[in-house]
């Protein structure tokens, strides 16, 4: 019988190792490029490059982002459309900054 080493099986079964959400970047960028009634190849190309940069950055640290922030920001980033890694990245950044600097109420 084949057995995985304990460390490997823990990694594979751990909920902390979540796969980053998959958005339809091409659909999102087509919407952006077609905004205003005319299609812009330059806007499409720019959008894809920006989305790729945001995706690469998020993928590298996805497991370190809290599951609550990942869930909330995934909903925000996909609201009303196919989803955007740039919006996801912005949301994660804002949520992490807010969590690190909670104000206190004083009477």
Short précis:
The chain is 61% helix and 0% strand. It is mainly alpha-helical and 107 residues long. Helix 3 (41-61) packs across helix 5 (85-100).
Q: Rg to the nearest angstrom?
A: 18 Å
**Number of helices, counting only DSSP H or I runs of 4 residues or more:** 5
How many separate structural domains? 1
Write down the overall geometry. Answer: globular
Mean pLDDT: 88
Distance between the termini: 66 Å
Let me know the largest β-sheet: none
- By DSSP, the count of extended strands is 0
Helix content: 55-70%
Strand pairing plus helix content: what structural class? mainly alpha
* Beta-strand content estimate: under 5%
Uncertain residue ranges: 1-14
What is the H/E order? HHHHH
Describe the protein.
The structure is a single chain. The protein is an all-alpha fold. The chain has one domain (20-100). Helices cover 61% and strands 0% of the residues. It has helices at residues 6-13, 25-33, 41-61, 67-77, 85-100. The longest helix is centred in the middle third of the chain and has 21 residues, at 41-61. The N and C termini lie far apart (66 Å). The model is unreliable at 1-14 (pLDDT under 50).
Which helices and strands, and how do they pair?
Blueprint: H1 6-13, H2 25-33, H3 41-61, H4 67-77, H5 85-100
Helix pairs in contact: 2-3, 3-5, 4-5
Features:
107 residues, single chain, 61% helix, 5 helices, mainly alpha
């Amino acid at each position: 019988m084949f057995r995985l080493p304990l460390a490997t099986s823990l990694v594979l079964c751990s909920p902390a190792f979540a796969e980053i959400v998959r958005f339809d970047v091409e659909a999102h960028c087509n919407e952006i490029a077609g905004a205003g009634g005319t299609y812009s190849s330059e806007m499409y190309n720019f959008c894809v490059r920006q989305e790729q940069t945001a995706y690469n950055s998020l993928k590298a640290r996805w497991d370190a982002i809290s599951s609550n922030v990942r869930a909330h920001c995934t909903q925000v980033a996909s609201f009303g459309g196919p989803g955007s890694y740039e919006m996801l990245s912005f949301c994660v950044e804002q949520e992490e900054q807010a969590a690190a600097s909670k104000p206190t109420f004083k009477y």
